[in-house]
Design goal:
single chain, alpha/beta, Peroxisomal Thiolase, Chain A, domain 1, 2 domains, five-stranded mixed β-sheet
Length: 332
């Protein structure tokens, strides 16, 4: 039996055209550019436009086409789609199926949505890796696409400054070579901390009613301090775990791509294992937190601008509501 590895065949990303600055937000809530930058490192974020189909599926389609072009593949070369999104286009059909249609895929490939909040794409990659190594599929499209602006309370200065919209796509494929591979991965969740980051209404347990709207219960709620502490501790420990599982050391890491939630979290994680900031891929200043899209967007940008090259070892770590968390160590 042939031993299969998983290789990144191509990447792509898409950011909406509209740029929302800190000064723009300051016109609506009691805040200012300096206050936001000092606490988050964020300068601007992108906001999707429904009229331009900058929805989760619409942004994903644009990112996926770029990934297909980079991989020199056609849409029907995709065998399976895993779509990570926190708030999908609609509850059903799943957004992966909508994306299949928008890409013009006619091979009836399997399509699934997953929701692990900001960790979603990082959850999806090990799933795709396992499918490929088991010989189930040859090429899997893994998407993180989020329109966080639709569940962001723009009157809450503590949360509205944090989020933005965007999509990232990666095509994973089978290879018999070890020149590119996923060394190791780990996924966790600590449900004892689930109430630190949640959106209570909108699901089956609490559907949206006029009373919910009157009480402003339809928005995201976050305990920022607790999420910060959990994020730093968890991303650092899981990063160390996947490196150890791969029988490598921190010196073997060429690039670190953390979830882009907050620059202070990124700096704290890097400081925890003394990783040089110049080897950390950061774009939270431009795009804010695009939830599960942050890592694939950052990965695509770093590959396209030449920072990440074939053969480089890349460490990825993310956390999100749940509190979910995950880390991946791979050779690009």
């Amino acid at each position: 039996m042939k031993i299969l590895n998983t290789r990144i065949l191509g990447t792509g990303s898409y950011l909406p055209e509209k740029i929302l600055t800190n000064d723009d937000i300051a016109k609506r809530v009691d805040t200012n550019h300096q206050w936001i930058v000092e606490r988050t490192g964020i300068h601007t974020r992108r906001i999707g436009d429904h009229e331009k189909d900058e929805t989760p599926s619409g942004m994903a389609a644009r990112a996926a086409l770029k990934a297909l072009e980079a991989a020199n593949l056609e849409p029907n070369d995709i065998d399976f789609i895993i779509f990570s999104t926190t708030l999908p286009d609609m509850f059903f059909p799943n957004t992966a199926s909508v994306l299949q249609q928008k890409l013009g895929i006619t091979n009836q490939c399997g399509c699934i949505d997953i929701n692990a909040a900001c960790t979603g794409w990082t959850y999806a990659v090990p799933m795709a890796d396992a499918m490929i190594k088991a010989g189930m599929y040859k090429r899997i499209l893994v998407i993180g696409s989020e329109m966080t602006s639709t569940f962001n309370n723009w009157d809450d200065r503590n949360t509205c400054i944090l989020f933005g919209d965007g999509a990232g796509a990666v095509i994973l494929g089978a290879t018999e070579s070890d020149e590119s591979t996923i060394y190791s991965s780990t996924l966790t969740a600590d449900s004892t901390k689930k109430d630190h980051l949640y959106m209570a209404a909108g699901g089956s347990a609490k559907r949206v009613t006029q009373e919910i709207l009157d009480n402003n219960e339809q928005w995201l709620t976050m305990n920022g301090q607790e999420v910060f502490k959990a994020a730093v501790k968890t991303m650092a420990s899981l990063s160390e775990k996947v490196i150890a599982d791969a029988n490598k050391s921190m010196e073997d890491v060429d690039w670190f791509i953390p979830h882009q939630a907050n620059l202070r979290i990124i700096e704290a994680v890097g400081n925890r294992f003394k990783f040089p900031l110049e080897k950390v891929v950061v774009n939270v200043d431009k795009y804010a937190n695009t939830s599960s899209a942050t890592v694939p967007i950052a990965l695509d940008e770093a590959i396209r601008d030449g920072r990440i090259k074939r053969g480089d070892n890349v460490l990825i770590a993310a956390f999100g509501a749940g509190l979910t968390a995950g880390a991946i160590f791979l050779k690009y």
